[in-house]
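[09:14] KT: can someone run the structure on this one? pasting the chain below
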Amino acid sequence: MTRVQVIGAHSADFVWRAGGAVAKAVALGGEAEVIALSYGERGESGELWKQDGQTVEDVKRIRHAEAEAAARHLGASFGCLDFGDYPLQIDAERLLAIADRIRAFAPEVLITHTGVDHFNPDHPVAFAAVDRARSLAAGAGVSSAFATIKPPQLFLFEPHQPELCEFTPGVHVDITSVWDQKLAAMAEMRAQRYLQSYYAQRGEQRGNHARRASGNEEVRYAESFQRVLPQVVEQL
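[09:31] RB: done, structure tokens below
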């Protein structure tokens, strides 16, 4: 059973970029948790701000409901630390809060953003915080004066424009069997409806790449990730 934890800068990030991997892990008997550092209420909720009389608190409420519904489609739980967005800022107290969430869930697989994203100011901040919090939660893999967990593997999900964000896919996850779940999850994100077709197309494209890399003609849809840490195996 694999424990998968996804930590994104905004409440919808997990759906577009790792929704299939989350659903697949759960379908195979694993457990998944999604944590958002913010709701994306200022910079990623444009459709909601078109409504007259809209407020920040109401946008947060709507975004929470959307993300919670999306997570249910995937079989995951959802929580938000509500740190605010654009800019997302992480001080020592917030860093420890992230480390506590990682320590509490004790994931085997931890997924977050790339460290470079020229189009989103919050994503690299989230990467730096999650990467550091992971090390704090795991005690850098050695005995420490505080409670630690087994170091989880760290994966980065695909950014919106990967070729400009130093993203090199090293793992393709076949999500064909859970594709309908990902579509249902994406459909919940009505505040960013324009991304639904974009990431549906990306799933097909990565499915093509996965077929060519594996020779498995049954793969139709995939998500791609970049591994940060070495994989430890008994043999190649």
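[09:33] KT: thanks! The mean pLDDT is 95.
[09:34] RB: yep, looked fine to me
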